[in-house]
Write a structure and sequence with these properties.
- The protein is mostly helical.
- The chain has helices at 11-25, 31-59, 61-69, 71-77, 111-114, 119-122, 124-132, 134-140, 177-181, 186-190, and strands spanning 88-92, 97-102, 150-155, 161-165.
Length: 199
Amino acid sequence: MAHSHTAPPPPIALRVKAIESLLVEKKLIDPDALAAVIDLYERKIGPRNGAKVIARAWVDPDYKQRLLDDGSAAIAELGFSGAQGEHMIVLENTDKVHNVVVCTLCSCYPWPVLGLPPVWYKSAPYRSRVVMEPREVLKEFGLAIPGDVEVRVWDSNAELRYLVLPQRPKGTEGLSEDELAELVTRDSMIGTGQPVYPS
């Protein structure tokens, strides 16, 4: 999916960039350190929490059922809860259904299990197009969904967040829960990607 924007950034983004530039110019912050912190929350801490939830569901059928019945409570069992994750619904991908999550109004996102939302998730093109043409958008992410698989688009809001439970990759029966967690990607928990296969 092309993530470029033709519209100018919103005023708040310009303000944040201006403040960041001033802090860097006055040597109050190190831009590399700031980038490392953002990367940590965007790709490591947050999504690792969600990956642990998914891996537990893959190895523990009772936990999986609790997760599907009451996502918030089951996620809290593993110690992941808080603002932006109070009311969670977990959606299971199957051979016949593929789920994908969006927030059409803004960028509601389950921070406790996924960390910071990616830039593309907040972009107007993703938020509008994935509802209208989900298969095409998923294809642009490199995810071709077969025609006999139903694609369901779920719209998060201020009261409710969604987490996708991707299918466990075939051939991973001998892997530990920790090893399985390493296969889970942030995008697979949004529905715009799949877990990685073990090398």
